[in-house]
Amino acid sequence: MPSLATIQDLQYCAAFALQITIAIAMFRRGLYKQARYFFVYIIWQTVSVAILYEILHKKPPFYYFVGYWINNVITVSLGIAIVIEVFNRMFSPYPGIRRMAKILFLGSAVLLVLISAILLIYNHAQYTVPILTFVMVTDRSVRVIQLGLTLTLFAITKYLHLRWRNYLFGIALGFGFYALMDLVALVVRMTYGKPVTVVVNVLIGTAYCAAVVIWTAYVLQPEAAKIPIVSLPSHELEKWDETLQQILKG
Questions:
Q1: Residue 162 DSSP SS3
Q2: For 150, which of 114, 129, 176, 202 could close a Cys bridge (C-beta 3.0–4.6 Å)?
Q3: H/E element holding 222?
Q4: Residues 212, 204 contacting (CB under 8 angstroms)
Q5: Mean of the pLDDT values across residues 22-51?
């Protein structure tokens, strides 16, 4: 049975190889023009995975700790930007639907921020290093926001009968899955502490690899750039759009 260190090495290598595949496929098919933040995210992750791998094996643990959390802040921020970008791209042809969906989306965001603030204030986890407590509680709160926004996006698109085969849904699906698993892992680590750290890190790595596999599968579809977003006849969505515009104007 391979050791945990070997599993982590395999995860780094798999993520690195798949991310390069995604970047090349997006560039060749012109998808980077439609999903710019996601393309930047993949490039950043490809570089950061290589750097963190070197730090993990050649530097003291403290350097990896700092590098990991700096990278986490950047990737979570990009992840939220990507969800918003996907939202804007999906509803761009229909201003009325987009405005209504935006109201629901922003309302959910406000609610999620309030929930995250409560989680941040009323926190019971304590570590010997105070900064670690702050970092992990903050990360948990941000993951709640990211996961909540992704679920809101899915709820809106399901109601409007949009296509799940479009690569934009694959992007959102991968982020939603990873945010959920990372949130679960954070809660476990904050509950049981240092003894489960290594196992939790492996589980997070596995979840991220699964997300990368989802993105790869969607991006490598033969007609990834051509699969329409809408599944309803366009005239039906146009009627919805006109009705919503009238309601919002009134």
A1: strand
A2: 176
A3: none
A4: no
A5: 90
